[in-house]
Prior knowledge:
This protein has 9 helices and 7 strands. It has 279 residues and is of the alpha/beta class. The termini are far apart.
Amino acid sequence: MPRFSGKVALITGSSTGIGKATAILFAQEGAKVTITGRNTQRLEEMKQEILKAGIPEDHVLAITADLNTEEGQDELINETIEKFGKLDILINNAGALFHDAQGRNGIAQDISVYDRTMEINMRTVVTLTQKALKFLIEAKGEIVNVSSMAAGPQAQPSVTYYAMSKAALDQFTRSIAIDLIQHGVRVNSVSPGVVKTSFGLVEGMPAGLQDKLISFFESHKECQPSGKVGRPIDIAHIISFLADRKRSSYIIGRTIHADGGSSLVMGMQAHNMMDILTS
Ligand code: NDP
């Protein structure tokens, strides 16, 4: 029997990228899935893709909703319960990296960038989790949050607000994991490194620029020791492991880093120590 047979999963940000790969994987492994995003057409295309993969139509619920609104969140929870009768797994995946309109970095970025970042990457996770909690406790379910290697401990001077939002998310994961395990609900997270998706293009960064960045990282081992950035399915597999109680039940409140080694390297290692000493 597929491992998520009989389970119901709500995956935010599932019209593209990591969330999409996760929703397809969960559906292929037997789960009934609620997929969501703001763009109806993209969501519909995603639904068609799931159906083409042989998933029965009554296993998929597509809801166009803005997570930044209370109504959007209510719709996600209420319609999931109405259609599937329960909620076993919540994947808080939707997130965004916003750029300053004037191209400024770090603390120079306008405070509106901070507000927008915190809203989607942190506040919506808290409020959606609150709304889902009653059902997750009933099901003795699982929550998996999608964080980022940007959460630290390294500094992130270019994307300070984004990094702060993900560091806060990691503390949220740890803290609620201890709170909720007494009710039988498990909480964990995954921290991806660079993954090739449309992420970061939200504010109109041309696709060519993203390719340029990725190819730089892949050709510099001090950025990407594995020599390859991740694919959405690489992260989906980790999310599915953390949502699978049979395989990961002893992991509580932890973040699994999946970044091809990026967060393990330091700038010092870009230089050969013997060259420095002998020059
Ligand atoms: P994508 O940009 O490909 O996907 C983001 C998803 O979130 C889309 O489905 C988008 O749909 C949805 N979304 C964004 N804002 C809202 C909103 N206000 N309401 C509802 N849905 C929303 O990103 P990724 O798949 O790359 O990112 C997924 C997660 O992974 C994020 O949390 C990100 O921080 C994290 N991550 C990504 C990395 C990467 O390199 N790609 C690295 C580290 C972490 P729509 O636009 O239609 O609303």
